[in-house]
Amino acid sequence: MGAFLSAFAVFLVAGVPIVVVLGLAALAYVVFNDQMHLIAAFPQRMIAGVDQFVLLTVPLFILAGNLMNAGSITEKIICFCQVLVGRFRGGLAMVNVLSSMLFAGVSGSATADSAALGSVLVPGMKKAGYDAEYAAALTSVSSVIGPIIPPSIQMIVFAVLSGTSVAGLFLAGIVPGILIGVGLMLHAVWVAHKRNYPREKASGSSEILNAAMGAWPALMLPVIILGGILSGVFTPTEAAAVASLYALFISAVVYRSLTWRSLVSVLYDTSVISSVILLVVSMASIISFVFSIEQIPEQVAEAMFSISENKYVILAMITVGLLVLGALMEPIGALILVVPVLLEVGELIGLDPLHLGVIVVMNLVIGLATPPIGLCLFIVCSIAKLPIEKVARASLPQLGICLLVLVLITLVPDLVLFLPRYFNF
Questions:
Q1: What integer pLDDT is reported at residue 1 of this predicted model?
Q2: I need a labelling partner for 392 at 20 to 30 A (CA). Which of 43, 46, 247, 410 fits?
Q3: Measuring CA to CA, how many Å separate 77 from each of 68, 102, 224, 241?
Q4: In a domain, 27, yes or no
């Protein structure tokens, strides 16, 4: 196993794409352990890894999000949020967070959130008198709500790797996502009063109605997804297909902002992103194969229990390890490595798989807003034209709120599980 871990660490530090890192690490394992006969099983394992109906949700949800992004949805959501909370002191900061929460229900992607909203809100907040570092930090951290509130690609990948219900995980992510959003908005109000940030003029009822009419077709997308799944009308895969068709209709017919050129671009981007994700998932079967041969899950569980058998000490070790891993790796690649191991540990300490899924995903996506690898941090810094270290320093209070919510949902499982239990998942 030393050859696998050494190759993985070397190639990861060298900046090799994660899917290549996983493949080369697996190859190093069979070569240095004289297990060359196992290579013949690798192609079958890779095909079996992606030969699952539920994985069709990945390209379909990505397509739905990309179609909505191309359909001027960003401006509609921001406008709607502004008429709701813009009149309060620090309202534009609250608009930033609320937009991320609503955008999460459309795209489910933290990087799409930070790019789409950051390009509009960071310059807007700076122009309104907000500190540039604060505007960038808030945008970066609030974007991590995207993979927590459904639909979420990371939740789907966890479901596939663990055999957990996709719909159950979607429901389990709602309350944690809302808690992070509310926490960030309360902090924004406190900062606004402390720094005397401006408030926008109050909107009239006609403005609120117009903004709501403009945004409601887009905001119906998560309602269709969750409503269809929970009512039993759709499976998650069918819901993703319906969401894609609905997004195409809204962008092309209702908003009339989708051109043939932009449609081609959307399809191209969707195919590239989906291919990368599915290739990484296919590599997961090889990694799980290697781990099962070496009995890695059992060894990790034994090592953790040798330190302490206390459930909360083990959860603390898991949290610290995942936060470090999330800061060093992209979430989907990290999921490939940790899910087979943590399922064993979670079962031994009596952790519900849905609860474990939310804990794992939340830990890993927080890393998207932290150096040295945080994609959302890099995206927002490039938009704001600010050095990473300044924005990272300004992000500490917001990251603290995310960690506080993480601790809360870890210690109080009912915050995560009461919705799935209510709907019998």
A1: 64
A2: 410
A3: 11, 7, 17, 23
A4: no
DSSP 144: G
> Contact at 8 Å (CB) between 1 and 294?
yes
- 19, part of any domain: no
Which alpha helices (H) appear in 128-204, and where do they start and end? 132-142, 153-162, 166-195
Residue with tokens 């949805």: 73
Angle at the Cα of 64 (from 60 to 65), degrees rounded to 5? Answer: 120
Helix, coil or strand: residue 199:
strand
d(C-alpha 143, C-alpha 111), whole Å: 7
**Which of the residues in the chain have pLDDT under 50?**
none
* Distance, C-alpha 168 to centroid of its chain: 16
User: What local confidence, expressed as pLDDT, does residue 32 receive?
Assistant: 82
Residues 365 and 331: beta-carbon distance below 8 Å: yes
- No. of H helices and E strands in the chain? 21, 0
Global confidence as pTM: 0.89
pLDDT at 173: 94
Residue-wise pLDDT for 336-346, tens only, equals 889 988 998 99
Residue 359: which H helix or E strand, with range? helix 353-366
Name the helix (H) or strand (E) containing 403: helix 396-411
Residue 20 resides in a domain: no
List pLDDT tens digits, range 136-155. 999 999 999 989 998 888 99
Cis peptide, bond prior to residue 353, ω within 30 of zero: no
Strand partners for 89: 199
Cα–Cα distances in Å, from 158 out to 54, 161, 354, 364, 388? 12, 5, 10, 12, 30
Helix, coil or strand: residue 89: strand
Q: Domain of 184?
A: 35-422
Q: Is the distance from CB of 82 to CB of 186 less than 8 angstroms?
A: no
Residue 180 is predicted with a pLDDT of 96
How far apart (Å, rounded) are the C-alpha atoms in residues 218 and 254?
10
Written in H, E and C, the secondary structure of 41-60 is HHHHHHHHHHCCHHHHHHHH
pLDDT value at position 181? Answer: 94
Give one DSSP letter per residue of 244-312, joined into a string: HHHHHHIIIIIS----HHHHHHHHHHHHHHHHHHHHHHHHHHHHHHHHHHHTHHHHHHHHHHHH---HH
Looking at the domain assignment, is residue 307 inside a domain? yes
Count of the separate structural domains present in the chain: 1
Name which of 129, 131, 89, 135 is nearest 114 in CA terms.
Answer: 135
